[in-house]
Amino acid sequence: MSVRLLSSEDVSENAQMSDVVPAVREAFAAYERGTAQMPPKSYVDLERYNGDFRAMPAYLDAGEWDAAGIKWVNVHPDNGEKHDLPTVMGTMIYSDPETALPLAIMDGTELTMKRTGAAAAVATDELAVEDATSLGIVGAGIQSYTQVEAIAEVRPIREIVVSDLDESRVRAFADHFDDRFAVREGDVGDAASCDVLSTVTPVRDPIVELDDIGDHTHVNAMGADAAGKQELADDVLLEATLVIDDHAQTTHSGEINVPYSTGVLTDEDIHAALGEIVVGTKAGRAGDDGITVFDSTGLAIQDVATARIAYQSATENGSGTTFDLLGVADSHAER
Predict the structure, then answer these.
(1) CATH architecture of 2-111+300-324
(2) Phi-psi region of 86 (alpha: psi -120 to 50; beta: other; left: phi over 0)
(3) What is the pTM of this model?
(4) Looking at the domain covering 114-295, what would its CATH class be?
(5) CB 269 within 8 A of CB 237
(6) Is 282 in the active site?
(7) Residue among 71, 82, 229, 282 flagged as catalytic
(8) What are 238-281's pLDDT values in tens digits?
């Protein structure tokens, strides 16, 4: 059985955002309808190395297609300084649900960036004003790039305001996008006054205050991925129409984890899960005014949906490298 090995470049080329956004939308819908399985994310703490491993399995039954896989991902904050390696790396194993044969092994880092941007786009499509043309970015690291690519799929973005303490990252961001958008540097308040704001930072002390945010801004809070992290002040979360991706994950390690653990924020303050809005059991944006917030922790169903897109496209295009992992005769049709 041939297994397809896909590099980060292969994933980037084959998982086009125009395909990934609707696939991730369908993943949220399947999860809400109960046709997806997603066991809780499991952690292996590595105190000796100031890092951890995370295992994220999922199975999606979306009607016309199904897909399964697991992502093995790490967070090692010291990697850059000590080893000249990325803080976060990942590997995705994409499998045939019918036979359990592995179909592809692919870079999970690029995959994560793609599906994270797509999740923000799905939330933006449901929660931002229809004529949103300005996008604020707080944190100009690599994750910010797919925020722009994805959100521009669902709203006619023309202006981007980027805020980051690292001037070199701001310049790199501007250079990358200035042929497509009007990009300018600003402070957090400038970015937060835009129609849409994506925060993509690792901070533990909130950096976005309620006074910073525009009257109708939709916020994608993407940075918090561990207990103790928080980008938005408590009063922002309490004032906003608050939407989460998954209750267990957001209360454990998402944007709301700190105020939720102290009782400042309760389940009564959570308007809906994004899947509920996608399938229509809960309302999205009610009007032109009002702040909305999407708390995104990243779900395994998103990884599997994106892996399916990457695998199918790569198979059609002959991308990547194939090899015999199991020594099984290649008599099974590729799904």
Answers:
(1) 2-Layer Sandwich (3.30)
(2) beta
(3) 0.94
(4) alpha beta
(5) yes
(6) no
(7) 71
(8) 999 999 999 999 999 999 999 999 999 999 999 999 999 999 99
